[in-house]
Task: structure prediction
Amino acid sequence: MAIVNTYLYFNGNCEKAFEFYKSVFKKDYKFMGRYKDVPEVARQNFPNCEDEHIMHIGLPISDETILMGADIIDDSRKEKNASKFFSLYISTESKEEADRLFNSLSKEGEIKLPISDQFWGSYYGICMDKFGVNWKISFAFENN
Result:
């Protein structure tokens, strides 16, 4: 079976974002590498990235899921609101875990749909974190 993981790109604040995610999910990095570690021949592919920017980072948030990311500095990007085109969907094992994640992720961000019981049988909410990443947090009652 294939496993799908999420890869997030940042414009220079990847490390700050992942420090935040590390505190929310209470997990440690699997790997963190910086552009200073990229061989010189490959550095030409990342002309706007500085030595201390993140080349790749992995944060396991469950046995099946790794949240990954990097800094890709691109001053020519036309779309500055790419976050409106995706959300990360987290299914939790308890209502308490859903509340903790939702409250942590929405702090200094934006609550788009307050977490609450929904007509389809889930405890569910939508927020955007302070880095502009959308999160859908859900606990399904029928699983318990």
Summary: The longest helix spans residues 14-25. The mean pLDDT is 87.
